[in-house]
Design goal:
Low-confidence stretches: none
Number of strands: 6
CATH architecture of the largest domain: Roll
Strand order of the largest sheet: 1-6-2-3-4-5
CATH topology of the largest domain: SH3 type barrels
Structural class: alpha+beta
Shape: elongated
Largest sheet: 6 strands, antiparallel
Length: 135
């Protein structure tokens, strides 16, 4: 989304009533299409028009030079950007790769397994040692 949510950020979206959306808000929507469903976009509202009693939104991506080629009619609720955690998306993406599993996840699981087994076995070994030492 450019300036509002840098690439690699995790964005949280809040469902709000369409009447509360205003110029400058960043919204999440699926662009209109004549065929298959498209991936959601996060663009800023640059103008709102009233057409036949409905609010029509004109949007633009912060990194784009001009407005989007469509006009949006949103009924009911819309998704407005609530807050952003920059660059966490890169970490989430990395944790889904085989390299992350080999370098982070599997060694961490092995360590936790070792610690758990040690807590189970070591107290039993100490009890056995104490029983042998007492007359």
């Amino acid at each position: 989304m450019g300036s509002e949510a840098p690439v690699g950020s995790v964005a949280f979206v809040q469902d709000v009533s369409v009447e509360t959306l205003k110029v400058g808000d960043v919204i999440l929507f699926r662009p209109p299409s004549s065929g298959e469903a498209r991936d959601p976009l996060m663009h800023r509202i640059i103008s709102i028009e009233e057409v036949d009693g409905q609010r029509v939104f004109v949007t633009r991506g912060d990194a784009n030079g001009g407005p989007d080629p469509w006009k949006l009619i949103i009924n009911g609720e819309g998704g407005r950007l609530a807050y952003v955690i920059p660059y966490v998306g890169y970490l989430l993406w990395f944790l889904q790769t085989r390299l992350a599993w080999a370098v982070v996840v599997l060694p961490m699981a092995a360590y936790l397994g070792f610690v758990t087994l040690r807590r189970i076995w070591v107290p039993a070994a100490r009890r056995d040692t104490q029983n042998m030492q007492t007359p």
